[in-house]
Design brief:
By secondary structure, the chain is an alpha/beta fold. It contains 12 helices and 10 strands. Strand 6, helix 7 and strand 7 form a beta-alpha-beta unit.
């Protein structure tokens, strides 16, 4: 079966100017042998050859690489959509250049009210920088998305943060912190808290004009709720099906959120990206899925074959198995709130 690559999420560098408590990459210091500019350009050409639609540069902090403008220009010149995910610290320095490359979306991490955000990010003033960055992007007509990673640390900040984000008029993506990298498992949301966040997302989508101010749960939210609207579109994890992750030293994975150095299918220094993507022995956990692949949390579920056990990142991190996500609306509603 042929698979069409639609999205590549690229850990452009592991170097970072913050030390965030939930960072799954434990970012800070660049990998010792990150791709050169020439190798990055070749990788962009290989992505275009596979007709990839979207390329997202993230980190670490992508704007700490001096060659980001060349790579951004190459992505757009090749007809692919350019996106950034950033902590916002350097946006004011580079806003003119960013606007020049016309990114589709720039995601800015915003993890709570000022005190909470600065605590999570480990830097005083980080909240003000992130807020100012969103304003700068909006002023230039660039679509900005606030990205909030939720844990017990900032769970209670969502309502206050809502007021900050709504005043700006930017999009809002909410996702859940998982216990790998820097994140301490003690701060992981319980299933009840997770479901409460889902209720919050749902309530905000009802209260706002979704077309004008989207509030979304990331891939880690779902699935098959009896109560919450819009939770029936999940068709399984896209890692290795329509998306890939790229490590800063050229490793190809299905999804960076599984742990950047886990499940590497090949390296672009050793083989062309096209060969890695089209190798029938790669991404087996998704491409060779059958009903028997479902883990114990999902094997008897009536939605299992369609849902494929939910987000494989959450599933593997919490249970060490694929297709076995315990953070599932259908399961929570059945086993905890007894609907």
């Amino acid at each position: 079966m042929a698979y069409q690559l639609e999205c590549a999420v690229w850990e452009f560098t592991l170097k970072c100017n913050l030390r965030c408590s939930h960072c799954g990459s434990s970012a800070g210091i660049a990998r010792p042998d990150e791709l050169t500019t020439k190798e990055c350009i070749k990788l962009c050409e290989d992505l275009a050859e596979l007709r990839c639609n979207d390329v997202s540069l993230m980190g670490g902090e992508p704007f700490l690489r001096n060659d980001w403008p060349q790579v951004a220009q190459c992505i757009t010149d090749l007809g692919m959509n350019l996106n950034f995910v950033t902590n916002g610290i350097l946006i004011d320095k580079y806003i003119d250049d960013i606007a020049k490359y016309n990114p589709k979306v720039v995601g800015i991490s915003l993890d709570g009210t000022e005190q909470t955000h600065d605590r999570i990010r480990g830097k005083s003033g980080a909240f003000k920088k992130a807020n100012n960055s969103i304003d700068l992007l909006i002023d230039r007509g660039i679509q900005a998305t606030a990205i909030t990673t939720v844990s017990k640390i900032n769970f209670k900040d969502l309502h206050a943060l809502k007021d900050v984000i709504y005043k700006k008029g930017c999009n809002w993506q909410i996702q859940v912190a998982m216990p790998f990298g820097n994140f301490d498992k003690r701060h992981l949301l319980t299933k009840e808290e997770y479901y409460a966040v889902a209720l919050f997302i749902s309530s905000q989508r009802i209260k706002t004009s979704f077309d004008n101010l989207p509030v979304i749960g990331a891939h880690c939210f779902g699935y098959n709720s009896k109560i919450l609207p819009g939770c029936h579109g999940w068709k399984g994890c896209t890692a290795g099906i329509s998306s890939i992750g790229i490590t800063s030293d050229g490793g190809i994975v299905g999804c960076l959120s599984m742990g950047n150095d886990c499940f590497i299918e090949g390296n672009v220094r050793d083989a062309p990206l096209k060969d890695i993507w089209q190798n029938p022995d790669n991404f087996k956990y998704n491409r060779q899925f059958i009903k028997n692949s479902l883990g114990p949390n999902c094997k008897d579920c009536k939605h299992g074959e369609k849902c494929r056990g939910g987000c494989n990142s959450v599933s593997y991190i919490l249970t060490k198995k694929f297709h076995n996500n315990p953070y599932c609306f259908y399961t929570i509603e059945k086993d905890i709130i007894k609907t």
